[in-house]
Design a protein that fits this description.
single chain, mainly alpha, 4 helices, 83% helix
């Protein structure tokens, strides 16, 4: 009955491989993991939920870290122009 949600989650995750930017890839993978978590809860599959909680957390953390980090390429270019 809920199989279609698993297939949608698979499609979302597979589409992440077409992302050109790392931040977009991580965001799509986090969304796919959240979809998998919903699916796992519906079918009462603890391993599906547990594995995807880890994936969502790592993807979300790394996307946040990338966003919070200053743009080192821009800083390097600015420093080289001032010296």
């Amino acid at each position: 009955m809920f199989d279609w949600i698993g297939w949608v989650a698979t499609g979302i995750f597979a589409s992440s491989y077409f992302c050109k930017r790392q931040a977009a890839l991580r965001a799509v993978q986090a969304f796919a993991a959240l979809t998998w978590i919903g699916y796992g809860l519906l079918i009462r599959a603890v391993p599906v939920v547990g594995a995807n909680v880890v994936v969502a957390a790592v993807a979300g953390w790394s996307a946040w870290r990338e966003h919070a980090r200053p743009d080192t390429a821009s800083e390097s270019a600015a420093k080289s122009q001032t010296t």
